[in-house]
Structure formats: C-alpha cells, structure tokens
Amino acid sequence: xxxxxxxETKISKSLRLKRRPVAVKFLETPPNGVPKFExxxxxxxxxxxxxxxxxxxxxxxxxxxxxxxxxxxxxxPLLPERAKELEQTxxxxxxxxYIKLEEVPGIPQLAKMPGAVVYSPLxxxxxxxxxxxxxxxxxxxxxxxxxxxxxxxxxxxPMLGRPTCMAIPAAMAKGAIISSGCxxxxxxxxxxxxxxxxxxxxxxxxxxxxxxxxxxxxxxxLHEYHxxxxxxxxxx
Length: 236
What we know:
Radius of gyration: 19 Å
Shape: globular
C-alpha cells in the first residue's frame, strides 16, 4: 500500500517524528501473508512499541489477556478462569485512588470483539488501518491536532487520559483524539515524559496529512511573529 508510505513520509517530514506512526487494523479473521505475533506482552499497547520499531504482525485475542483493562477497551472477554482479573485490577486501582468505579461505564470500547489485530508501521501497513497512533512531543502533537481541525476531522472531545487504549475506539467513532497517555502505557511503550499521543482514524489520515504542510508553515511564521512581539512589547 504505497499510498501509506507516502503519507507517513509526508507526516514525518512535517512533524520531524522520531517514532514511526503505528497503523492498527481490527479484523474478524487472521490476515493472509502477515506473520502472527509470537511471545507474550503485558498489555495491548505494548504492541504499539513493537510496531513503531518496524515490525508488522497480527495478534489474536489471547495475546491481549494479560491486560484486563486493555481487553475491556478492545471488547475482548477474558477466559472464565481469568474473568475476575478485571474486577481485581479495578479494585486495586480504586483502592489506591487512581480511578473511581463510576468512571468505568464511560470508557469507550470497540463495538465488537476482533478476531485478529494487525499492527505495523504506517508506511508498511498491509491493510487499510482503522486507526493510526502518533507519539511525539507536545509541540508536534499540537501541529497534528491543528491539521485535524483544519481538515474538519478533530473529535469534539477533551484530551483523554487513562486508560490510553480507550482513545482507539474513541477515534474510530469520533475523529482525531489527543491522549495524555497513562502510567501503564508509558512504562510499556517507553513514552517520554514530554510526549503525548494523537490517535487518528485511518479514513482521515491522508486528509490530515495533506493539511500538515500548511499548518507547519503557518506555525513557523507565527513563531517569528510572536517572538518579535515579545521582544518589542514585554517588559519582563
């Protein structure tokens, strides 16, 4: 899918990305010609880190069982013998003051359980992605958000936080989402302290990429404009 290679190149050039954007696709059955993930990871967002490093692969529901919260947002029921893990995890999080139980019903979920999930760098995706995940410093995410607004594809949502993975179904349903991430995701993906996420619907990524050059150029000019005004006007 050469068009996604050019889209990744265009976005990475405009934003000077150090991490590759990750394409994610939810399927009913495993895809042909894509290797299956082998091994174990503690969370579904761990697969973002692996894909950003350059690997293309697919997972099955069992690969997501180790994260009860991620399984919930991906609409993947845990096996009967592990069904209590969600309740146990939520109990732990509420006990330490991390979350309130009344918040749980408002966490977005996928509409249905996937039979397989494909992860890859955007430019190498073997299928049209459902979402594309961008991880970058806040100033670069700002540009991406502004490009999404210019394209008319920004979700009318506040910045999302914990759990990070809920931004995937939210973006699929509403448009581009900005996420502050969560502590688990930051540990599992090596997201730096000053980095945020933008999660973009796959159907919108090319349209947003086409607006980025204009936004990046405008911001460069505004940087000089505001810098000059500060030097001229500020007394402190």
